[in-house]
Specification:
The complex is a heterotrimer of chains A (about 140), B (about 500) and C (about 450). Chain B is of the alpha/beta class. Helices cover about 35% and strands about 10% of the residues of chain B. The mean pLDDT of chain B is about 95. Helices cover about 35% and strands about 15% of the residues of chain C. Chain C contains 14 helices and 14 strands. In chain C, helix 3 packs antiparallel against helix 12, helix 5 packs parallel to helix 12 and helix 6 crosses helix 7. Chain C starts with 9 loop residues before the first helix and ends with a helix. The chains are: A alpha+beta (about 140), B alpha/beta (about 500), C alpha/beta (about 450).
Chain lengths: ~140, ~500, ~450
């Protein structure tokens, strides 16, 4: 699926802050979308969360507890907000050596972390499916 | 295009090194044995070995691949890149200025103390404050000290719950950074549609937790905060202090004073308004002035004058002072230059400085409004002060070419780009501060260059997107530079091997 | 008459006003509320011509006694050295002098490469791989180092030696006050001046972010236990910070080679005049570890290539640490630093080379050795007060005479000699002690002159 020039793969859930969620059994793999990476430009550094960190699902009012890291280009820093509440189980160490994976493979090798969601059913309702996200992006 | 910067493929100085060469001489050979255990001595030191002419040629070539105010137009917003009078350089280099030690007996440095004392008086008068510390080395340093004074003040009033500092969203990055360094939580207030501080939002943001509000006036958009009296009342009624970032003082000299607007603490950038050279990033000086109530917290020592004995002295007897915030008394070499500048200009001269600077900025504004591709995001109805922020958003929308590339192409015209990543509230911002040092012809050339670039963006976009080509070097891989940082010759050699 | 620095005359300004449709200049200031309009002229000295300013300022400065015209033994954080003439002529080149921060690398390769070379030479000098392109001075660099240690280790305590300059300590405390860091002083051995290792180990718990020593010490002696202090700090997860006079590193082991994670210091002696204590040059370097580099304050210049990969180039890197991007989450608020002083330092180091710097350091230390030897022949004087090897500064004690350091210095001044810095206010436990410094500016004759004056003032030899 596409939204203009941006890839929007099916089977994933999407947040308004341009994160994607892939459900893997009881866990959820998280990353940022193609639209987000193209707006950020070349990523030079990724700040990953600590394993075990408790995060909250992002709302309009963004707080530190909702952050699961940050992505840096040479001229800007963007916080990454968690699409779901839960605990950080795994982080993508490959991003330390190769932050450009976020640009080249935002849905695959550029994944950021894996969460153990604490309120999956309720919170999934806040996320969009591929079609919904594509519509959302087209309007931006 | 009449501009072409020199280009040398100049190796790193380490690569020019040849063992045995030396670029200096020592008065006498060491004679005595010094009694130091062998294990404390170093075995090797790798520094370049060159003769004096080689060193001179290397750095002369490097200087040719650089650009200063003396090279051409340098309209960096909020930096006040004005001309630096050379007599000021001469004076600071005199033996009587450069070869004095801060701990010399006071009677042997009366000249230095006198200059500091008189400079302080001038700055206090210009800003409408009571006393000024000359100890701070730079603007951000002055802002940091202002925050320390703020905290000392509130603690003295036993007001321990003030842990927030308010900053407008248009503020220079050093403001929130300095407040955070001093331990404050930063609260940002938005600007309104007129580009000024939104009074309603400010009212909502102040509380008993507000320690201070940091403002610059004119603000970073070059607009005068005409509601400043109300703004001052809001923060004062809430019990907080009002801090003035002096970066934009060039826009109001002789017209109004921060002290009269209600500011409690004022900092100055001597390397901006007061014409000391920027030096590629320093040294500067960022003195901090305060009103009576805060005088006792100023860093120690202050310079005092004993009328009876007709002598100047360093006053350390200040029990409420926050202490020291620099090793010695400040960047004296810079202070001398600023003092000389004030003597060259006088009150009338400073008035002319501001009038000419403000007129130059307004002139550019009127002319640029007539050029396609650039627009004013805020308030085109009233005048700006010494700087103006245009947005290249229309150009970006139409051609994909925005402020960043416009700035790069400007370099090919022999002009330094305006600031373009700032302020954050204007997309594709071009922050233009011409200063009073520019002639009308130069301003016309600048507007014309922006017009040409706008046309090129439409008709020959490659010319713009491949810029600059007239500088010593073209676009650099800044992404690679930050992804795999090579920060020294050691690291460079290591990476070359890999 | 017009102003030489304002090209647009009144006439031209009148023309410009007409072109923009303004009746007069006051219209451009009409938005300033009348209550705050300045209704009088600023009370400043009247404007003078360049000739008059030159004469006037020169006459004020003539009231100073430069140490080049008398004999001075002052050091203590800013040291008098000979600045080779070519340094000044190079840093006064206006392409360097009147440029700003090299945000546009394509037009600023000169400054960028010069600063990269500075970073490189400092790195070699201190034995670490990463150095930034300057801080304000040693004291503020120390303050920032403490903050960096706290950020990296997430701990709140910072240990310093009791024998630290009190001015530097005051600056450090101000920086520490922001995040509420606790600064703890560790004592010294009264005989040797060396850091009290036992006390250090007792203070080192899981809450210490960094341990700081100065080597040479503020009082001139060398700290021999560098390795042990490093080990003790690292064992408990604290960082090891060393403060230096860079000239000493022409001779002595680099702190990076005995375990320092961060090195700070005063770069002024490298090609910059004393200038009453400023401009100065804060040295700041750290080990090449990502978790340290990311927390480094200040500007960093990195090497790269052009986009097509064909040519080498330099640019500012890792700017996301800095205030203009990270704002309140920046590693420091520092923006303007001491860049031109750093370029002077690079030129100085390149001109001296390793041999020159070693010879210079040896000469400075030699002169101190000679002075110490001679001072000890004078009745009532003792130098140094610590039994340890010294660099070019040493303590002189006159408790056994009936004269205070203050009185001694006043008498020396009558002989045209500026004595050492009195240490009584900083370290009352050391009695009547002063800190003296010798550099290559002092000849043997100069030191003999000091000895003769001291002898005369104190009335006799041993």
């Amino acid at each position: 699926m596409k939204a203009g020039n941006y890839a929007v793969p099916e089977g994933l859930h999407y947040s308004r802050e341009h994160e994607w969620v892939k459900l893997e059994g009881k866990l959820a793999r998280v990353g940022i979308t193609d639209y987000a990476q193209s707006k950020l430009g070349d990523v030079v550094y990724v700040e990953l969360p600590e394993i075990g960190k408790q995060v909250k699902q992002v709302t309009e009012q963004k707080t530190k507890e909702m952050e699961i890291g940050a992505v840096e280009s040479i001229k800007a820093v963007s916080a990454i907000y968690s699409p779901l509440s839960g605990a950080v189980k795994e982080i993508n160490a490959a991003l330390q050596e190769r932050p450009e994976l976020i640009n080249t493979s935002s849905y695959n090798e550029g994944w950021i972390c894996v969460l153990e969601p604490s309120a999956l059913e309720a919170e999934l309702k806040q996320l969009m499916d591929a079609k919904g996200y594509a519509e959302y992006v087209k309007k931006l | 295009m009449s501009y072409r910067q020199a280009r040398w493929v100049e190796p790193l100085i380490f690569e020019l090194s040849k063992s045995g060469r030396v670029g200096w001489t020592l008065p006498e050979k060491p004679q005595e044995q010094i009694n130091v255990p062998k294990e404390l001595l170093r075995k090797r030191l790798e520094l370049p070995e060159l003769s004096e002419p080689e060193v001179v040629r290397h750095y002369t070539r490097l200087s040719q691949m650089n650009y200063g105010v003396d090279s051409g137009f340098y309209p960096l917003g909020s930096c006040t890149m004005k001309y630096n009078p050379k007599v000021c350089e001469e004076l600071a280099a005199l033996e009587t200025a450069s070869c004095i030690h801060p701990h010399q007996a006071e009677e042997t440095v009366q000249g230095a103390l006198e200059i500091m004392y008189k400079l302080e008086q001038c700055l206090a008068e210009i800003a409408g404050v009571v006393r000024v510390s000359l100890q701070t080395s730079a603007g951000a340093h002055g802002e940091f000290v202002a925050m320390l004074i703020t905290r000392a003040y509130h603690i003295s009033k036993r007001d321990e719950k003030r842990d927030q500092v308010i900053v407008p969203d248009s503020a220079h990055g050093t403001n929130p950074a300095s407040a955070a360094m001093a331990g404050y939580e930063v609260v940002t207030v938005p600007s309104n549609a007129r580009g000024r501080v939104d009074l309603k939002a400010l009212n909502a943001a102040v509380s008993e937790r507000s320690a201070a509000l940091m403002l610059t006036n004119p603000n970073t958009l070059g607009l005068f905060e005409d509601q400043i009296i109300d703004i001052a009342n809001v923060i004062h009624d809430a019990g907080g202090l009002l801090f003035y970032d002096g970066a934009n003082l060039n826009g109001i000299l002789g017209k109004t004073r921060p002290g009269d607007m209600g500011f409690d603490i004022v900092h100055f950038n001597l390397h901006k308004t007061f014409s000391t050279p920027h030096g590629g990033g320093g040294p500067g000086a960022g003195p901090v002035g305060v009103q009576k109530e805060l005088e006792k917290f100023l860093p120690v020592p202050l310079v005092e004058y004993d009328k009876k004995r007709d002598r100047y002295y360093l006053d350390y007897d200040r029990p409420h002072s926050i202490g020291k915030i620099k090793g010695f008394y400040g960047n004296f070499g810079v202070l001398v230059k600023a003092y000389a500048y004030l003597l060259l200009m006088g009150a009338e001269g400073l008035n002319e400085v501001t009038e000419a600077a403000v007129l130059n900025a307004n002139y550019i504004t009127r002319k640029l409004l007539g050029v396609e591709g650039y627009e004013l995001k805020f308030d085109a109805s009233g005048p700006c002060k010494h700087e103006v922020v245009f947005s290249a958003e229309p150009l970006k929308r139409e051609t994909g070419i925005g402020a960043h590339l416009v700035a790069k192409r400007l370099l090919d015209f022999g002009m330094h780009a305006p600031t373009y990543y700032f302020p954050p509230i204007v997309p594709e911002a071009l922050m233009i501060e011409p200063t009073e040092s520019e002639s009308k012809e130069e301003l016309d050339r600048f507007v014309n260059a922006l017009r040409m670039i706008s046309e090129e963006a439409r008709s020959a976009p490659d010319k713009v997107s491949s810029a600059p080509t007239a500088t010593a070097i073209g676009r650099l891989d800044e992404v690679k530079a930050s992804r795999q940082p090579i920060l020294s010759w050691r690291a460079y050699r290591k990476s070359a091997k890999e | 008459m017009g102003y030489p620095y304002i090209p647009n005359t009144r006439e031209i300004r009148g023309q410009m006003l007409r072109e923009i449709g303004a009746a007069n200049i006051d219209e451009l200031f009409a938005d300033i509320p009348p209550q705050i309009r300045l209704k009088r002229k600023l009370k400043l000295p009247p404007a003078m011509s360049e000739l008059e300013v030159k004469r006037h300022v020169q006459s004020i400065l003539a009231k100073n006694n430069p140490f080049t015209q008398m004999l001075s033994f002052l050091g203590g954080g800013v040291w008098p050295h000979h600045v080779p003439a070519h340094i000044r002529s190079l840093v006064q080149r206006s392409e360097f002098l009147t440029s700003y921060t090299p945000y546009q690398p394509e037009a600023s390769q000169g400054m960028l490469q010069a600063l990269f070379e500075y970073q490189s030479m400092i790195a070699e000098l201190v034995g670490l791989e990463v150095a930034n392109s300057s801080m304000y001075d040693w004291a503020t660099a120390l303050g920032e180092a403490a903050l960096m240690c706290a950020r990296v280790t997430r701990r709140q305590k910072f240990i310093v030696p009791k024998l630290i300059s009190k001015d530097r300590l005051s600056v450090l405390r101000n920086y520490a006050s922001g995040p509420g860091l606790e600064v703890v002083e560790v004592g010294y051995d009264r005989r040797t001046g060396q850091l009290d290792l036992e006390q250090l180990r007792a203070e080192l718990g899981g809450d210490v972010a960094g341990v700081y020593i100065e080597n040479p010490s503020y009082l001139g002696f060398l700290e021999k236990q560098g390795d042990e202090i490093a080990a003790a700090a690292h064992k408990t997860g604290a960082l090891f910070v060393v403060g230096v006079n860079p000239i000493s590193l022409g001779l002595f082991k680099a702190p990076g080679d005995y375990g320092a994670d961060i090195v700070v210091g005063e770069g002024q002696p490298l090609g910059n005049p004393v200038s009453f204590g400023g401009p100065s040059l804060g040295i700041f370097a750290c080990r090449a570890e990502l978790k340290l580099i990311r927390q480094l304050p200040g500007r960093l210049i990195g090497a790269t290539t052009t986009l097509d990969g064909k040519a080498r180039g330099y640019c500012m890197v890792l700017q996301t640490r800095e205030q203009h991007i990270r704002r309140e989450r920046a590693t420091s608020s520092i923006c303007t630093n001491e860049a031109l002083c750093a370029v002077a330092a690079a030129i100085y180091l390149a001109s001296l080379g390793p041999r020159g710097l070693r010879d210079l350091a040896e000469l400075c230390a030699n002169n101190a050795s000679y002075a110490i030897k001679k001072i000890n022949t004078i009745k009532g004087l003792r130098a140094p007060i610590f039994e340890a090897p010294h660099f070019n500064e040493f303590t002189l004690n006159c408790d056994d005479t009936r004269v205070s350091i203050q009185k001694l210095n006043a008498k020396l001044l009558k002989h045209g000699i500026q004595g050492g810095k009195p240490l009584r206010t900083e370290f009352p436990e050391l009695g009547e002690t002063a800190l003296l410094c010798t550099t290559e500016l002092h000849s043997r004759k100069d030191i003999d002159r000091l000895i003769d004056a001291l002898t005369e003032v104190l009335g006799g030899r041993r």
